[in-house]
Amino acid sequence: MKTSISLNPTIIVIFGGTGDLNLRKLAPALYNLYSDGYMPEKYAIIGTARRKLTDEKFRETIMDGVNSFSRSGKVKQEKWNKFAEHVFYSPVDVEAPETFGDLKANIERHQKEFGPDTQILYYLAVAPNLFPLIAKCLSKYKLAGNEDNCRIVIEKPFGRDLETAKELNCILTSIFSEKQIYRIDHYLGKETVQNIMAFRFANSFLEPLWNRTYIDHVQISVTEQLGVGDRGGYYEGAGALRDMIQNHLLQLVCLIGMETPVNFDADEIRNKKVDVLKAMRPFGPEDIRFSTVRGQYTKGWVEGKEVPGYRHETGVAPDSNTETFAAIKFFVDNWRWQGVPFYVRTGKRLFQTSSLITIQFKDVPHHIFPSTVTEHWQQNRLIISIQPEMSIRLQVQGKRPGLDMVLNPVDMVFDYKGTYTTESPEAYETLLLDVMTGDQTQFMRADQVESAWELLMPVVNAWESKKSLSFPNYTADSWGPEDAEALIARDGFHWFTLPLNKD
Ligand code: NAP
């Protein structure tokens, strides 16, 4: 989160330069940062991957990516040409360390040109099994720098369980200091997610209500209409629990649940978030039975087109036990949240693509209105919509205009589109700029990642060791398995949705 920018000369090395993430997200983000005047005066972007490309060919490849995926549409040619002068390519096979020589020479050439203040950022947009190899090669070739001049960005997934996350942390911290390591969770770079901190801690009216006395329960729902598409091979080794809940959804729980930080220092904020993870109630066998639900989609129809079931997607085993849906009830055992359930759910091939956080407040202590005037009595709700709508709604009871006293729920809405005319940056723009300025606030510290894994390991182990007999158990274009409705209905609630247009 920036207020003013002054950047040292910067070299950005993107491992996986030819991959999907770079073409869809990183290259468009860097080009938009350049277009908006946020890149340093002196910078070089060096893409690397195994295939042999010239600088020119690499520039063309990423221009195609920017043209297809940038929020600002196709590039403006003159601007692009200037940006592209800073873009280079060095082939490297990270499984053959001897191929690092050219990359090292390329980096050193720019370092020499830019001067002693140059900082180097390594972005690891490659398969996770290559993370340790790259870190070790950077160390071997004396490219790992120090706290002041070098940073490394690690994409998700960070480990596939507690043990592998600890191993990766151990390798990284043997080469880099924690201050150099940026474990990215792109959800934290989204405008509406960052606004949760502003909303909670820049306004005084909320804090007295933000606790077990006034809050009934919290729901976090991140749903996707898309299936796994061509990422079936990757998804088979992940599933909804690892791919979404361990990182994005638990981070949202932390933002809602955290205590007020004393300042905006990165470590102070991360301390407060990790406190939430540490306070979350561990899962015993009974909790896994009654407080978790897993699902897998079967075929169905989405907007008039027949779509395959998960087990028929490319790269997926015909008897796959991988969950494409997960719903979990968590508790945060501390003074603020004791007894307040946090329901989270996420899944693919669901009815709607949306990310919603709903805080439902407790009912009024005493109803003074006769039941005849309350058409649709509803407890107050605060709904933070992260996507596709970017808004915060407070749902309150209001009097319908007319001679009779009739009450019904109405929305007080803060809507980004209606309030601001400036377009919101993409999450990757915000986060890449944070890496360049050395701001770790929105990045996961080692203990955050490990605490999240520690919490979920009993569920991971239970789901892996006991194959689901009910899979597939929900139809594409539905809201997931019936058990997920039952999970929340048992407590007297239901999952909230906004009447959003499908996109
Ligand atoms: P991808 O499309 O498969 O790209 C992988 C990249 O790694 C390619 O550039 C590939 O190029 C390169 N590569 C593979 N083996 C290599 C080797 N031995 N040495 C050097 N380079 C090698 O994968 P992706 O979708 O971009 O994902 C990259 C990472 O980002 C993964 O960790 C993924 O989980 C994470 N991520 C991706 C997304 C997304 O939207 N795509 C979102 C969130 C996180 P060559 O074949 O030419 O070597």
Automatic annotation (TrEMBL):
Record key words, sorted: Carbohydrate metabolism, Glucose metabolism, NADP, Oxidoreductase
Residues reported to bind substrate: H186, K190, E224, D243, K348
Signal peptide: none
GO molecular function: glucose-6-phosphate dehydrogenase activity; NADP binding
Gene3D superfamilies named among the record's database cross-references: Dihydrodipicolinate Reductase, domain 2 (3.30.360.10), NAD(P)-binding Rossmann-like Domain (3.40.50.720)
EC class (word): oxidoreductase
Residues the entry annotates as binding NADP(+): R50, D93, V94, K156
GO cellular component: cytosol
Pathway connected to this protein: Carbohydrate degradation; pentose phosphate pathway; D-ribulose 5-phosphate from D-glucose 6-phosphate (oxidative stage): step 1/3
Active-site residue list: H248
Keyword Oxidoreductase among UniProt keywords: yes
Coiled coil: none
BP GO annotations: glucose metabolic process; pentose-phosphate shunt, oxidative branch
Ranges where the Glucose-6-phosphate dehydrogenase C-terminal domain occurs: 197-495
Family in the record: Belongs to the glucose-6-phosphate dehydrogenase family.
Protein name: Glucose-6-phosphate 1-dehydrogenase
